[in-house]
Amino acid sequence: MNKRTTAALAATATAAALALGACSSTPAAVPADTAKVCAAISGAHGDASTDPVALALAGGASRASIAYDSATGEGAPASLVSSGCTLIVGADSTMASAISEAARANPRTRFALVGASFVDAKGHATTLKNGSVVDVDASQAAYLAGYAAAGMTTTGTLGVVGGARDNVTSSQMSAFSQGVDAYNLANGTSISVLGWNTATNDGTYAQDADQVRAATSDFIARGADIILPLAGAANQGAARAVTEAANPLVRLVWSGLTRQDLKGLTRDEAQSAGDVPMSGQSGAAPQQVADAQSFADAFSYIQISDEVRASIGAPVLTGIVVDYSSAADKLISDASAGGPSSTVPVSLVSGGVILTGFGSYTPMLSADLKLGLSDMAGQIESGGLTVSTPFDA
After folding, report:
1. Which residue among 178, 320, 376, 385 is least packed, with the fewest CB closer than 10 Å?
2. Are 358 and 309 in contact (CB under 8 A)?
3. What pLDDT shows up at residue 275?
4. How many angstroms separate the Cα of 334 from the Cα of each of 15, 66, 137, 256?
5. Do 255 and 230 meet the contact criterion of CB atoms below 8 Å apart?
6. With a threshold of 0.85, does the pTM exceed it?
7. pLDDT below 50 — which residues of the chain?
8. Angstrom distance (rounded) from CA 116 to CA 124
């Protein structure tokens, strides 16, 4: 082996070592005055003004006094790197390939994916030192909503329509149907769900508000009286369809809510504040004790605010909240401190996912339904019940 060959091999080995070191080391801490938090949006859940992840990141950046930016489309991650972003978050699972590619090409920039794992060139799940995952388990609340809807239908037919074909949306559609199946099994009923096929794990998806409206109108015509739209801002199409149907029995399970859309205290907040007597506490009126034991204690005292209900413009049975605020704060904090990549949960247990109270429909929940919901929520919180779908990242 001549000296030139030896030198070339040595140089190649050194370059490889440097590349490996760059890929394996966690990006350095970035102070607030030089940091820039960015959202890479697919457009499936709207633009930067409506996408829930983008809004959470913008809020987190504002609280941390950090610059914020966003871009939409498959090329968004690469363009955001060029614009100087130090933390780039893919807003949903459809951004997995683009974010993964950008993360491998830019090991000194932090990345994160919401509702998805990083993937290699062959599409297989992988891990990256500069990549965190936001693990969204909204299926837990959707499962409970399905169980509740099955217990409150008057026609025996329910409906679900999705927006984007991403993992979070599809998992909620599947879980809603599973909740209905659980109710049927527990009660010997045969309530059906329009818009989801458990055999094919596929269902009705809509691209915009007009398509959501058409799908909802079709469900109502076929007998559905409780419908869950999972289409973000396009959910308004479902509200319009219900209003046009003018059927007092038809109600919606509203999705796309954040904490800003709510009123009241969580169960833990209520216990800490002592505002609401919990089961087993002295001084609680008999009805309060019964409610706490059978339903309210298992969920929360949180309701959809009156203003939000009015803005929806159609009857809402309950709501599913997926709030990314805490996850956004965690990602930004880790980036500022130079902390390692991590998995950040958004779930019923973490408080990022909530099934709201039933408002004026609460008296219509039977005692058995309350107890069933309470038991399921408790099992989910303790780990005794795992809601699993084919779309879990």
Report:
1. 385
2. no
3. 45
4. 29, 13, 21, 26
5. yes
6. no
7. 1-24, 275-298
8. 11
